[in-house]
Amino acid sequence: MNRLNEEAREKYFETIFKSLKNKDKNVFLEYFLELHPTDQVELFQQLYKDKRPMFYEYLTPEQFAEIFQGLEVEEQKEVVKELDKTYAASMFNHMQADDIADFLGEIHEPHAKDILNAMEKEEADEVIELMSYPEESAGALMTKEFISIKATDTASEVMDHLRKKGPEAETVYYLYVVDAKDKLVGVVSLRDLIVAQLNETIENLMSTQVVSVESHTDQEEVARLIKDYDLLAAPVVTSTNELIGIVTVDDVMDVLEEEATEDFDDFTAAKGATDVNITSFSAAKRRSPWIIMLMFFGLITAGVIGTFEETLEEIVILAVFIPLIMDSAGNTGTQSLAVMVRSLATGSFERRGLLHTIKREFGTGLMLGLICAVVLMIVIPFLYPEGGVILAGIVGVSIFLTLSVATIIGAVVPVAINKLKLDPAIASGPFITTVNDILGLLIYFSIATALLDYLPR
Questions:
Q1: Do 203 and 152 contact (CB within 8 A), yes or no?
Q2: How far apart are the C-alpha atoms of 407 and 403, rounded to whole Å?
Q3: How far is CA 296 from CA 256, 293, 299, 301, 303, in A?
Q4: C-beta separation of 191 from 166 below 8 A
Q5: What are phi and psi of 185, to 5 degrees?
Q6: pLDDT, tens digit, for every residue of 149-177?
Q7: Phi and psi at residue 273, in whole multiples of 5°?
Q8: Which helix H or strand E contains 213, and what residues bound it?
Q9: N or C: which terminus of the chain carries fewer CB neighbours within 10 A?
Q10: Residue 274 within any structural domain of the chain
Q11: What is the CATH number of the domain that holds 433?
């Protein structure tokens, strides 16, 4: 099944829709089953609801299972309501255990129990086991459909075993070698197996240097490990090294997308509200705590300006540069925040260390501040000649100090939060921006007040 180009896919879709309209099951199956699974999911999503019953009638539960796995959770919830209970139970029996666990974790418990009770006991037990692990852990992410072999097996025996069990496995590119107690002792790649002599034992083919993760390892750490070692899958073991599952690269891609979305939510102070499928009320409810908190921080900013009210009354032109100071401080701090959070996420922070990263960001802040200060000290006397060189100097020095301090705050705050075992991304852009606004204004007005007597009225 190859992924079709846009033009070919549209023609295929048109033929399939026409076969549904004409109730031609043979033509439907001939064309639909030739599609790539991704295209099958896309076609199903384009169906009108009144055509779906025919879709379920023509496809077996096993065939529809792959389509169901490709749908979003909200779509899956709607589809389950449309399925016959027997059909649904059979479909779940043919799905990967980790995909079922993900779906059941998103629906109400009584309904989840009904689905598990309708499934075959062996399949249901695997799902229950996966759901018992902590959320966002390797155990919750892993699949139970993997191939394990013995060190005493020959290459020929393993190939025969693959022909029987391979279709049920999530991946066959890695074959994990276990001892009599199911403890992980080695790994053999499919390539090594294919090129080996048929009578060669696995013990002579396997590598004993196996990269594995424990079941309670955080999913982000699992994703980083698979990326660093360029793996297609990583075995999951217990504390006693018993092999219990594998995490595949496709699941890791979902984790990376999920983690990136979470970080983006935190950066924008809109945690959980970036999903366009939720209602306006839900989005407002999730955003409001941050907005209210930042509103109170805004009152602090207003208080800082109020403290220097006399300075502003004497030299009104100082008010012109308040947005410039605030925006520059906030933007620079947010950039440093993004650099530090990314460094923590990729592990480069641990390799380089705190001092190196902070020195780099502080050096960046100094250079940015110097560049901006020079530009402003040249431009301001032309734009505001009534302020003179002194005004240009006040704004220039203020922006230099503000940007230098803003980079330090943007770099240090996420590190401090990370030390508290929290996600550093919660040091969100709006939060860092507001803090730097306050400090920037304090620096600006403090310098202006100190040099007030030298400013022309």
A1: yes
A2: 6
A3: 34, 5, 5, 9, 11
A4: no
A5: -125, -10
A6: 999 999 999 999 999 888 888 888 899 99
A7: -110, 10
A8: strand 213-214
A9: C
A10: no
A11: 1.10.357.20
